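[agent] plan:
  1. take the single chain provided in the ticket
  2. run structure prediction with default settings
  3. attach C-alpha cells to the ticket
  4. add a short note for the reviewer (M.T.)
[agent] executing step 1
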Amino acid sequence: MRASGILLPVASLPSRYGIGCFSKEAYEFVDRLEEAGQSYWQILPLGPTGYGDSPYQSFSTFAGNPYFIDLETLVKEGLLTEEECDACDFGDNAEYIDYEKIYLSRFKVLRKAFERFVADDVYDAFVSENGYWLEDYALYMAIKDALGGISWSEWPAELKDREEAALNQKREELAEEVAFYKFQQFMFLKQWKALKAYANEKGIRIIGDIPIYVAFDSADTWANPVLFQFDEDNQPKAVAGCPPDAFSATGQLWGNPLYKWDYHKSTGYAWWLLRLAHVFKLYDTVRIDHFRGFDEYYAIPYGDKTAENGWWEKGPGIDLFRAISARLGDREIIAEDLGYMTDSVKQLVEESGYPNMKVIEFAFDERDTGNASDYLPHNYPRNCVVYTGTHDNETLLSWLDDITPGERRQVREYLNNFKDSGKELCDDLICLVMQSVANLCIIPMQDYLGLDNSARMNQPSTLGKNWKWRLKEGQFSKELQKEMLELATRYGRR
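[agent] step 2 finished; step 3 output follows
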C-alpha cells in the first residue's frame, strides 16, 4: 500500500510553554495531517535527554521525556494553576527551544503537580506493569540528582556497583524523589497513549525511532552492566562510532558502550525483546537506527579522541531478528541502513524483509562512489521508505545551495529542469520522491515549508545548536495542507 507522511519531532511542535509536547497543538497537528491526506507521523526518540539535548543520548531506553508532559492538561486536572505555569520562564522564542530555561523551570512546576497528585489503582497498575525498568530508572535519577548530576561511573563504589544494602538505604533516603520520577513517567505515558490513540482514530500511524545503542550514563547500563562490553571496573572496553570516510577524516566518535552480543544470545536476546515489546506499545512502526551495526559494528578503544583506531566486529545478524519475529510476531520495522553498505549488510536487510531507507540528498553525492546510484528513484524497490532528508541532513533548500556545481547539474539533469530557482527545485524533488515506487514516502516538515538550515534539526558531531527548531503557529497552513493532499492524491498515496 502506497502512503506518505511527515517527519516532525514532538519537541518541534508549537505550544505554549517553550517546547513541543502532548498539548492541544499536537492534536491539531494530527488533524492537519489527516486533512492533508497523510497516513504517518514520524517522530524522534521520546526518551529523557541530558547533556547536548540529543534524543539519541537518553538516560533510559524505556523512559519518556518529562518535557513532553502537557502542563495545560495538568491544569485541567487540578494539579497546577495557570498562574504557576505562567510564572516560569520557558523562553520567549517561538522558533527555537531554550533547553537551559526548560530544564530550570519544567521540573519545578512538575514537582508542584506531583505534590498534589493522589495515587490510585490506575497509577498502582502502571508502577506494577512497568517495574522491570521503572524501579531502576527512578532510583538512578534520584541518586544522580542527589550527587549533583555526575555520571554513575563516578558514584561511590557501593552505589556504582549496586551493593544491595547501599541501594536499600538510598531507596529509603530518596523515597520522595523516586516517587517524583515515577509520577513523571506515569503522566508521560498517560498523555502519550491518549495522543497516539487519537492519531490512530484519525488514520495516522506513528513511526517511532530507537537508537541501536544506549547512552553510557543511563539507567540501562547502570542496572545491567552485564549486557555491555565493560571491564571489571564497569568501564567500557571499547565504544561505538564510524570509521573515517570521505565525509569525515577522523570518523565519528559516538562514545556509546557496545553490546556483549554473546551474552545477549545466551539469554535468547531477552533484553532486546523487552525493549522492542515496550516500544511497540508506544509506536505503530519502529525505525531502528544504524541497522548495519547488527551485521558489523565499529569498535573504538575507550579513551581515544577520534575514531581512527577502530576495528570492525561481527554483530548478531539475522539471529536477533528471528528471535524478535518468533516472540513478537510480524511487526512494522524500518531498517535505517544509511552509510556504506557492504554485501553482508544488504543481505541482512533482505533476509529481515524490513523496508530500508532511501534519501534523495544522497543520490547525487560526488564523494560517494559506492552507493549513490542506490538512492536514485529509478533504482528503488517497492519495499523501501524514501525521504528527501532526515533529521541529520541539511534542509533540502540549503543542501541545494551547498552542493557542488557538478552535483547541482546532476540534480537538474535528473529532473530535466534547468531554469527554476532553489524553492522550485525543492518542490520538484518532493514530487520526485512522492511519485517513486517506494511504498512509503516521508518528508521533513522543513522541506515542505522550503526552509533553510536555520531550521536544521541536527548537525552530527556538533554541540549547542541542535534539536532546537520549532514549527511556528500558522506555518502548517490550509494552503500547505491542500498542497500535500493534492500530491498524495496525484501519486496514489492516500
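[agent] step 4 note for reviewer: Residues 175-201 form the longest helix (27 residues).
[agent] ticket updated
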